[in-house]
């Protein structure tokens, strides 16, 4: 990466960690995705049941193989017969691991979801939530986050082949397609309610989209 971009990412990520910590999140800085992976596993007690939110950031961290070992009880959304039931079980997991679509420099998490399983789990249910976010997803405020959501949604539609109009055009037309992806927006404003529940690893690297 361009060293100036890297320098900017590091400072932005550190700034986000500071703001998130002030809002009650357990916020952790990681210089790289490899370091984020180490910190993530340090946060998960062996024997935990694990739920996952779909995430390109997590995919880039290559965590699935480890989570599938007998050290953990993974609700495996990527290898299951009934995705709906696995997502329901994940709502009561010990640890829910997820990416996020945006983190604001006011300490908010902003997510858009198809089924709502990820937005719901971040808000309530799992005893502990660990969110990993790259520096490219840090935005000034909720208004910018909502713009970001609209910008990136077509890429998710394309990735998952939902067949909505944006899969052809590349931009959001606020469709009414049967397989529309953008059905729920979850905004977490503050993490003081349950200390230690919401953990955010902010990576000074671009991850996901
Ligand atoms: S609302 Fe429809 S058109 Fe817009 S991004 Fe979502 S799926 Fe695509």
Strand arrangement in the largest pleated sheet: 1-10-7-4-2-3
Main sheet specs: 6 strands, parallel
The share of residues in extended strands comes to: 15-25%
Could you say what the CATH architecture is? 3-Layer(aba) Sandwich
Q: Give the topology string: H per helix, E per strand.
A: HEHEHHEHEEEHEEHHEE
Please state the structural category: alpha/beta
- Could you say which small molecules are bound to this protein? iron/sulfur cluster
Structure description:
The chain is an alpha/beta fold. It has one domain: Rossmann fold (3-Layer(aba) Sandwich), CATH 3.40.50. It has helices at 3-22, 33-42, 56-61, 64-67, 83-90, 117-123, 142-160, 166-169; strands at 26-30, 49-52, 73-74, 95-98, 102-104, 109-113, 128-134, 138-139, 184-188, 198-203. The strands form 2 sheets. It has a 6-stranded parallel sheet, with helices on both faces. The mean pLDDT is 97. The protein binds iron/sulfur cluster. Iron/sulfur cluster is lined by residues 153-154, 157, 164-166, 172-175, 177, 180-182.
Features:
21% strand, 209 residues, alpha/beta, Rossmann fold, six-stranded parallel β-sheet, binds iron/sulfur cluster
Write the layout of secondary structure elements.
Blueprint: H1 3-22, E1 26-30, H2 33-42, E2 49-52, H3 56-61, H4 64-67, E3 73-74, H5 83-90, E4 95-98, E5 102-104, E6 109-113, H6 117-123, E7 128-134, E8 138-139, H7 142-160, H8 166-169, E9 184-188, E10 198-203
The structure holds iron/sulfur cluster (SF4).
Residues 153-154, 157, 164-166, 172-175, 177, 180-182 line the site of iron/sulfur cluster.
